[in-house]
Design a protein that fits this description.
The structure is a homodimer of 311-residue chains. Chain A is of the alpha/beta class. Chain A contains 13 helices and 13 strands. Chain B binds a DNA duplex (16 and 16 nucleotides) through residues 3-5, 13-17, 19-20, 23, 26-29, 32, 47-57.
Chain lengths: 311, 311
DNA sequence: TTGTAGGCGTTATCAC
DNA sequence: GTGATAACGCCTACAA
């Protein structure tokens, strides 16, 4: 790991000339450039981005703070974000946090290191981010909004997601429906539920909401409610539900239909038979890359669609 | 985001004094220290770790390169590693890669930034890491070993894992067993299979190995082999298997038993009924933290155990 | 075409 | 106790 100064000495030129060679800048003869690049290569010279970032004042790293709550959804989402950022020359690193304190600790570190942006997945709505942390970097949140300066919330229209679910189920002829979701107060959860229940009311559907997955409660609710369909907040929940139901000998989708949300690639190996609403991973990735790239062109809201797995 | 120099000016002292105050060093009066800390706080001063690391030559970041192949196992494992590193004052960041080229790119970046170590999850055995990348940081691999200087492979005894599976199944009275695994050539896969088949041979069990999960092949193999048990390489595979089998109306574990490996926390919500062999996440985390901390005390190999879920 | 000097935000080592 | 000063590895501007 030699430095540019050491490299300059090895080449018997000045540091400035080395810099010209490495950055393809003009004002250097072809011969010296080639010599320098040659020697740089044999010595495995690699510039230290940290030093560059120190002097230029801007880094090319986007950090993400994600709940260590293990989730296939997050991993697939972040893979997508990474690809889009990589395409425009940014590095993307993830840091898992256990609780809100650790989240703030991570953001403080990102900020102190002058990362150019932080993507955060809050575990509940409206966590507040101290202004000082956001002073020199953008805070981009997904799933749930955060409070504080310089922050943006990137989300598809989750109310529309819920509405779409209700419409789809109505069209399939379902009337008595269970909506299974979480107690957590995060935008994606609340908005999807609102969109679903509102549209269901409009369509005169009979909906019962269950805010936690408890096998006994679910099974008794199914009977009591005479439910023919379950709308689950996400595919993971849909999968858990499916296992509980099939274990009871109830046939899916013959006796009861299940609809999830996500359809991330990884789920397809397990969930190849659960009908689901596509979450727009790609759109989120594009959106984040565009914001970081300083593009003002607001991308159009993605078109939601239902992926029918079993007919 | 003020610098230590600006802070010094605000306090009307020199940068050196500011440094003494911030680091609780001696050679400073209580009064000046308190004044400086006070002003630092109101201005939200936070030192830039990148600059510190530049001059001290050592960073406190451990980077991990993980396949973007989505896996609950990895996430739970890395959460564990993070906790152990955090306890000894290191930051841990993850960077997902799509292929070997991107893996090397990530390692090059870690190295150029002088990260103190890289944890890597190779997608196959014996990928070779250029010596230059390993010149100034340790390369710690899990799951599969890598080739190159300065690298260490942290793994439990996977042969023993396989043997334990065979012994457990024999003790449960199984004789005709299917071993379901992957075609990929990585240590964990090969060694587990070897341990299992060798011990099974010793115990006169009748084993048939299937190296890819294909529903039809699996079902026909079960019939043909008259299998009463399936040993799956991991819990994810076990879960996929379970779904295929139950869908066919075969009762688990009455008609057929399934054994997986992992038992990471996240699986318990889905897999609460699959018997599994505990993967020593915690041991791996401790081991990595110890190596990075420079401790020579080799931790004892973890004791493997079977977690029986359904009796 | 090339070399020199200054500075980014720290820490460390001198003096005073 | 406190304040200069040099250094880390790089980039930019200006001088030769």
């Amino acid at each position: 790991m030699i430095s540019s100064l050491e490299l300059a000495k090895l080449c018997k030129v000045s540091q400035g000339t080395v810099d010209r060679a490495l950055h393809n800048r003009k004002g250097i003869s072809k011969k010296t450039r080639e010599k320098i690049l040659e020697i740089a290569k044999t010595h495995g010279y690699a510039p230290n981005p940290a030093a560059r970032e120190l002097i230029t004042g801007k880094s090319s790293i986007v950090g993400a703070a994600i709940p260590q709550m293990n989730s296939i959804f997050f991993m697939d989402l972040f893979t997508e974000i990474k690809e889009h950022l990589r395409a425009i020359g940014y590095r993307f690193v993830l840091a898992p946090f256990a609780d809100e304190a650790e989240l703030l600790e991570i953001l403080a570190d990102f900020s102190a290191r002058r990362y150019c942006a932080a993507v955060v997945v809050p575990t509940q709505d409206n966590m507040s981010i101290p202004d000082q942390l956001a002073a020199n970097m953008k805070i981009l949140s997904v799933i749930a909004p955060v409070q504080g300066k310089n922050s943006q919330f990137i989300t598809p229209d989750e109310v529309a997601t819920g509405s779409l679910a209700a419409e789809f189920m109505a069209k399939q002829g379902h009337h008595n429906i269970i909506h299974l979701t979480y107690t957590r107060n995060s935008h994606a959860i609340l908005a999807r539920t609102k969109g679903f229940t509102d549209k269901a009311a409009e369509l005169k559907l009979h909906v019962s909401v269950l805010k936690e997955l408890d096998a006994e409660k679910l099974l008794s609710l199914i009977k009591q409610h005479k439910a023919s369909a379950i709308f689950c907040h996400n595919d993971w929940l849909a999968l858990e539900t499916l296992r509980i139901i099939e274990r009871e000998g109830i046939k899916v989708p013959d006796e009861i239909s299940i609809l999830g949300v996500d359809n991330s690639p990884t789920f397809n190996s397990l969930n190849s038979d659960i009908t689901t609403i596509q979450y727009p991973h790609q759109w989120v990735g594009k959106q984040i890359a565009a914001i970081i790239n300083g593009k003002k062109t607001a991308l159009k809201t993605p078109i939601l669609k239902v992926i029918k797995k079993r007919s």
